[in-house]
Amino acid sequence: MRKLLIPILVALAALAVFTACTSRPTNAVDAKVLPAIYPDYVGVTIPTDIAPMNFAMADDAYTRVDVEVSGSRSGSLHVSGSDADFPIDSWRKLLDANRGGRLTFVVCARKDGQWLRFRPFHMHVSNTPIGEWGITYRRIAPGYVIYGQMGIYQRQLSTFDEQPLIESSQSPGMCVNCHTANRTSPHQYVYHVRGAHGATVVHRDGSDELLQARNDLLGGSMVYPYWHPAGRYCAFSTNHTAQMFHTAHNKRIEVYDDSSDVFVYDTQHHLILNDTLIMRKAWAENTPAFSPDGRWLYFTTARRQHYPDDYQKQRYSLCRVAFDAATGRLGNHVDTLVNARLTGKSATWPRPSYDGRYVMYTRADYGYFTVWHPESDLWLYDVQSGRTSALNAANSRRADSFHNWALNSRWFLFVSRRDDGLYSKVYFSCITTDGRATKPFLLPQRHPKSYYQQSLYSFNTPDFVSAPVQPHPRQMGQLIERPHRVKTKVRNTSAASNSQ
Question: Count of H helices and E strands in the chain?
């Protein structure tokens, strides 16, 4: 009897699972409207190498959701549960089979014991994948004076796997920020450490080098880095940053600089290369970025104001200056690409596309720390034509900023507070051939509604990474706590100095 009973029970259990997975809602009422889902993935364009676009009903009163997905070319999926949770392997096959096509989603949801069937919606599957293994970001609880648990993490885009690269728990009192890779490479990157064991961490050639956090000859720390594509140089700014609080209902905090300058760091000789062309006393230079061919250094600059009284007058122009990688010297004049005096707005955070066609930047009413500015939007400067335009489809009524390109220059990511106005989250969009953006989608999570509603962290300064960084947070924490730091030297490379 035992021998007969066990196979029967196994068969019944399998039948129950099969029936639960394949059953469809009965007596569903036609709602005649699109479903309100979280995240809002209706009509988005997605790459083939993205994790399942799981979602839930936005209204918590719905206790169950049933979703059928069909590809315009082939394949289908069916899931049912408290939210739409698509199996990774099946999702990947469906995307591959419908490259350049679209997916149609038919959603039924149960509320108060009654099933409702909503109008179908679509996701467009791009012919162009993102082409990157994943992304990196800093995750931190919003704060103003002190901070708690935070760190830099990497996340695989085709799955939900996340790993810490370095966390504040590895060294008490440590704050880490501005993780910046060279052209999405996992083998060359830099980030800054604040606190009692402050340092600028430079990873290249398979080793970590900890620079002294501050050079008195420079007058400050090395922040907001951007690598020269050849890998020898890295541009930084040095900033004397302050903050104040708003009493207006739609703004909380203003971050500004008493002073700031841009410079280039030579990693081979530990040299800070100063040039008075981008280090003027009456002006605040900021947020540098090299062009993909390495021949230009983009940056923003604004005439210094009387702080904090005139903080709203601080408006940055987008500029560039020639750079010679053979000598480490700048050109002899600065080109103004987007003039704040003419636009009446502030241009910050320039990020050139890797094909050299565009420079994406953030535009705001004033200032440069745009993650705190609800009016901040993403704009695109066309390098060939000199025209600049807003990425209207990607922008929202809340802060959109901290953007970076994928290496193929078709996909980009950015952070936005459009979801709740409080926390910055990572979004993705694609640039069309005529320079427009597709509707952005939120970074997928296994159970996105519970994940984002329960999270008390913002995602900052995200970037793509072409392969996983080999993490060693414990060893890195021990290295940071050691006293040894590489000292940097300062050399004046300005044309006036060189002519003497």
Answer: 6, 36
Q: Are 429 and 439 in contact (CB under 8 A)?
A: yes
Tokens of 81: 């549960």
| SS3 of residue 70 by DSSP | strand
Question: Within its chain, how far is the Cα of 285 from the centroid?
Answer: 23
Single pTM value for the model: 0.92
Peptide bond into 39 cis (omega under 30): yes
> Which run of H or E residues covers position 390?
strand 388-390
Q: How many Cβ atoms are within 10 Å of 182's Cβ, its own excluded? A: 21
Contact 490, 218 (CB under 8 A): yes
Q: Which residue has the tokens 């203003």?
A: 254
Six-digit token pair at 285? 């230079």
- Whose tokens are 């910055």? That residue is 424
How does DSSP classify residue 104? E
pLDDT of res. 236 = 96
Three-state SS annotation for 246-273: CCCCCCCEEEEEEEEEEEEEECCCCEEE
Cis upstream peptide for 462 (omega within 30°): no
**Separation CA 26–CA 19 (nearest Å):** 14
The sign of the CA dihedral 207, 210, 215, 218 is positive
Task: Write the CB contacts of 95 (distance below 8 Å, at least 6 apart in sequence).
Answer: 46, 48, 49, 50, 125
Higher pLDDT, 352 or 9: 352
My answer on whether omega of the bond before 308 falls inside 30° of 0, hence cis, is yes
Q: What is the dihedral of CA 40, 41, 44, 45, to 10 degrees?
A: 140
**Residue pLDDT, tens place only, 324-370:** 999 999 999 999 999 999 999 999 999 999 999 999 999 999 999 99
Mean pLDDT score across all residues of the chain: 91
Q: How many residues in the chain?
A: 500
Please name which of 101, 52, 96 lies closest in space to residue 73, comparing C-alpha atoms. 101
H-helix segments, 322-423: 340-343
Integer Cα distance of 3 and 412 in angstroms: 59
CA nearest 298: which of 354, 256, 336?
336
Q: What is the pLDDT of residues 448-477, one digit of tens each?
A: 999 999 998 999 999 999 999 987 888 888
Q: Does residue 230 contact residue 294 with C-beta atoms inside 8 Å?
A: yes
CB distance 80 to 69 below 8 Å = no
